[in-house]
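User: What would this chain look like folded?
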Amino acid sequence: MDKNQSTGLLFEISRPGRRAHRVGAPDVPEIPLETLFPGEVLAETPPALPELAELDVVRHFTNLSSKNMAIDCNFYPLGSCTMKYNPKRHERIVALPGFGAIHPLAPDSVSQGILELVYGMQKILAEIAGLPAVSIQPAAGAQGELTALLVAAAYFRHKKDYRTRVLIPDSAHGTNPASAALAGFEAVTVKSRADGLVDFEDLKSKVDNRTAVFMITNPNTLGLFDGQIAEITKLIHDAGGLVYLDGANMNAILGITRPGDFGADMMHYNVHKTFTGPHGAGGPGSGPIAVRDFLEPFLPSPVVVKTNNGYALDFDRSLSIGRVHGFQGNIGVLVRGYAYILTLGPKGLREVSEQAVLNANYLLALLKDAIEVPKGDRCMHEFVASARLLRREKRISAMDICKGLLDHGYHPPTVYFPLVVPEALMMEPTETESKETLEEYAKVFKAILAESAETLHHAPHTLGISRPDEVAAAKTPVLRWKN
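Assistant: Here's the prediction, encoded as structure tokens.
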């Protein structure tokens, strides 16, 4: 074939009755369009496409993008589900052909680079957790919870020890009881004390031979580290149960303590939160789990192993719970996390947590005289304020404060969670925010509290969309099935 001859399959599409030919290949016979497409789908006339200048289009979408909240433009004091620092170089790294273009079903022989990275990530996450075995398959923190509980269920079935209950503190993330139910367990609530920590006496009264797992977030959703953890884990282990750590708040304890060392048997990471990764609107996430050695045989299949010939996916796992992900996990998030961990090293990871705790405590100190913080004057990586008194005295709710912050260009904190704090505002500044940013945010926050209730009830005032009528939405929801 002549080197200049086209091999493309582009056609000139026209009205019925006209003919089409291959662009750049005039010697190819013309083909009637009716032989390519059913006649009823062919337009009678060309579509009326708008004619727009390139600059008009670019400006439209650029201006549209500027209407979105983004970590590049706005401070995100979003507790629990932190919008973290996402280094731009990670996007270049993850786009390298060996990461971005490799097919997940490619044979191991041509996937050695990505397999080596995943193997390294497994080892690093095991070391940070203090737990020896890791699966990188789960695609989000909630799926990590579910996967760990499925591993626990398989372990107890294998032992013929049929336990039915999972104990969960009332301050836990809402996904904990949902994961327990999906894994086939009964979720049992454990009360918190007035200081926000686990009520050990209530826990003790509920532990028995039906207890499969106690799920604990430590530090918890109130931003408090539960110093009873050694007593708690001993109580559960003595009863034959397992301790699961919700690792959503690992960014508070990196390099300082390890869940395995204080008694946890299983945990998940939120890689997109603790080790960076763009995350919002439900994804993409990554929720690898780490477990003790006696639980390793039950991990999802496959895992990456090192062999005499390099690295390979190991499918030969007779006790495995099977796949929990279509392929091997959200690799793009893992690549970003791996780059972040290697960049910082052990000392840097510890500094991440120290700075996260310092920032949260500094913001707490700036605000505690302006708004109630019911669970203490100190915190770990986040704290929960309450607008309970403001609502009672000034008719200003937590939601009013959040809407007011939007007028000043700040993303609101997490609102009305955890449920154990009325009118909750959960704030987490993360390790990367500057002292000046925190001070300016506190200044704006206090200014909002000084505004009238009437003004705040109608906030935000400066955005294209104001708040919806939530009462009307709840009373007369528009529910419509769309085919």
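The first helix runs from residue 54 to 65. If you want, I can go into more detail on any region.
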